[in-house]
Amino acid sequence: MKRREVQPGVEWLGAVDWDRRLFDELIPLPDGTSYNAYLVRGEDKTALIDTADPTKRETLLAQLADVPRIDVVIVQHVEQDHSGSTADVLARYPEARVLASEKAKPMIVDHLAIPAERIDIVADRSTLSLGGRTLEFVYSPWVHWPETMLTYLREDRILFTCDLFGSHLATANLLAGDHPRVMSAAKRYYAEIMMPFASMIRKHLDAIAGLPIDLIAPSHGPIYDQPSRIVDAYRRWVNDPPKNVALIPYVSMHGSTAKMVDHLVAALVERGVHAVPLNLTVTDIGEYASDLVDAATVVFGTPTVLVGPHPKVVFAAYLTAALRPKLRHAAVIGSYGWGGKAAEQAQGLCASLKAEWLDSVFVRGMPDSKTFAALDALADQIAGRHLKLES
Fold it and tell me: What is the model's pTM?
């Protein structure tokens, strides 16, 4: 795409990556993504905020073909999907300076091989006049790296937020409007990338609360022309208690664990709990992460492979702990052929999870009446605790 005007003197650049389906060799991208950069022109200086992923450097450079001068390139976040074309921009504009946070400077040198003498540090809440336009830099560490900062364009009331408030969503729409698909993608993005840093994000939301904002311009996904929609959503995701939701990510090799999951789901539903079974052999892990934002309980269902949980359950348990959701309760159910410690190992993978572990239910071979009774008892435990959430 060509440059697109956001407001007079402020333009969107970058690339919409329609075909990318995996991010960081880890995160599924069912809707592609974008790498947003922004050109801000003042009377005296021109600033480029962020660049583009190295795979799209030619797109960015083509968009800059008729831009005679760039004075500063602002690196809000050093991760390469935002900063990876910085060196190419500097090569085209040899007089341009890089502006970044104090912690970002050595990271830019290490990750991008840009000479330190071309990088200037901007302090938290410091400003830069472009002539008729003023940029204010707002440090926002751990959103989601330690060096991240936001950039506020005072006169136009635009907050450039890099990863904060982003969404992995390829779209031809410059503005988000009130499209529900945008919020769904933003929630998934929050779950996959921002949720581990919820306590820090809470502080940053308070820090920007006093800024008058007309547009929020992230570096992934469309621009929010109704900024309260995404800010209010983040406040809910960060602050609200978990809901009456129990997730059951599971794998079943020979049908035994699946029978247990089916019984537990039915028992939970009968007791008024919203139960969500997720077969990990076919479930998009990003959907699971998104579901974790609201869930109060997770129950891992696993057969025993050798002496431990199935590898897909291992990954789900590790991911759950890494994302640090607001879960209150957890349990493990499953089956085994001759022995093993699948429950203990699954719990060990979630050692950092701040949740109460409920009774495990395991059976050798196929479940029987005693197994189903134990699952009913587990359902009673979960339902009783969920009722307290709502009281």
Answer: 0.95
